[in-house]
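Structure first, sequence second, as always.
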């Protein structure tokens, strides 16, 4: 049986599906992962077939003037339309089951209708409206149960409008009668179509007001080969002194490398801590006996060796720090990052978030002193790690796949 996983976005939006796909492959399924071309090595390293999707051309936060909201929406809509055409070509490569991320689901539903291929939602963020919290992506402040649900539905309507041009063009290509993105979403909800969420209940409990079919599976961890090791220079640095702090912003803060590098080093030295700077999209870099610059490294190998992690609060990095039992200082930039930063702080595993635009060396140093030297933060992170060890996110998806295909 052939399973096609489709995901779009940055590395953090793709990497979790490599571990999920590898688990499904070990269970005997043929698994392909459709993503943008830069992630082909990541996918193939997990032993999965790679299928190409268009690259994400949406503007990223950085320096300079923020893009006009309407222009940003037009750019995003154009990308989604291109994504729909690329997704159709990826499905033409053959599949018996579609596993759809939150970004690809509004397109995948139409492909499933046209081809008769069953589908299953596999989302990295809680996308369904609830009174428990506001929608994750717009970064809305809590507005009470009624307000949270209302803004959750509003966020879905905004997304539907974004996808409408792509849906119109895709259905025309597939020979399907007209159907709006909103109408298709309502059809999925009325049918209680299953969606599994790839995060831990250590961070988000299942809301009681979610419809049937929405379940939290547990985190899907990026694939790490059994033979993978940290580079010798990293091992040498780790062994040469007390556990360091990792500072990294993932795919965020492009063009801010010089400023952030200087800020991070000053904060680390002010707090009396050694540090590892992860270059990322920002291009962080520094030299010195007390600091090391690295590229992409498996979180599962590095994080347990750290005193703390300074990160942008992406879903994957937030989960990886918890899994390692390491406290965090979060500096959310955009999208769902303020949500995850707030959840980490709420369970006591991170200091209060420092918004990216408010980040200073002084504020970062103070938060680092707090999370490194106050044991309560490490205890909270260790408790979450113990909770997460009892979850089997990939196994839960495997069970759902078997139920869907055998039933």
């Amino acid at each position: 049986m052939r399973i096609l996983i489709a995901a779009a976005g940055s590395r953090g939006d793709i990497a979790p599906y490599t571990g999920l796909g590898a688990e499904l492959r070990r269970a005997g399924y043929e698994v392909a992962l459709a993503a943008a071309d830069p992630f082909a090595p990541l996918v193939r390293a997990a032993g999965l077939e790679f299928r190409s999707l268009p690259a994400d051309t949406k503007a990223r936060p950085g320096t300079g003037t923020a893009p006009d909201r309407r222009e940003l929406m037009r750019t995003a809509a154009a990308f989604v339309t291109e994504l729909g055409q690329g997704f159709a070509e990826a499905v033409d490569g053959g599949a018996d089951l579609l596993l759809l991320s939150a970004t690809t689901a509004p397109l995948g539903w139409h492909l499933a209708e046209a081809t008769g291929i069953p589908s299953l939602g596999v989302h990295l963020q809680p996308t369904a409206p609830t009174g428990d919290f506001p929608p994750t992506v717009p970064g809305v402040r809590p507005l009470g149960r009624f307000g949270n649900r209302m803004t959750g539905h509003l966020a879905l309507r905004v997304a539907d409008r974004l996808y409408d041009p792509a849906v119109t063009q895709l259905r025309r290509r597939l020979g399907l009668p007209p159907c709006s993105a909103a109408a298709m979403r309502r059809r999925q909800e009325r049918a209680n179509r299953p969606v599994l969420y790839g995060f831990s209940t250590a961070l988000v409990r299942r809301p009681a007001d979610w419809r049937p079919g929405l379940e939290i599976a547990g985190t899907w961890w990026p694939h790490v080969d059994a033979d993978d090791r940290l580079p010798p220079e990293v091992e040498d640095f780790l062994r040469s002194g007390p556990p360091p702090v990792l500072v990294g912003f993932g795919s965020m803060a492009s063009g801010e490398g010089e400023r952030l590098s200087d800020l991070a080093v000053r904060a680390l030295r002010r707090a009396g801590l050694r540090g590892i700077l992860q270059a990322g999209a920002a291009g962080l870099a520094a030299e010195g006996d007390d600091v090391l610059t690295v590229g992409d490294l498996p979180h599962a190998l590095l994080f347990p060796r750290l005193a703390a992690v300074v990160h942008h609060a992406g879903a994957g990095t937030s989960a990886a720090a918890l899994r390692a039992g390491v406290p965090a200082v979060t500096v959310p930039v955009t999208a769902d990052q303020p949500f995850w930063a707030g959840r980490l702080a709420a369970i006591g595993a991170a200091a209060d978030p420092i918004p990216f635009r408010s980040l200073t060396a002084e504020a970062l140093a103070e938060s680092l002193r707090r999370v490194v030297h106050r044991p309560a933060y490490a205890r909270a992170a260790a408790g979450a790690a113990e909770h997460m060890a009892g979850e089997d996110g990939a196994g839960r998806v495997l069970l759902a796949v078997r139920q869907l295909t055998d039933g």
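Margin note: The two ends are 14 Å apart (CA to CA).
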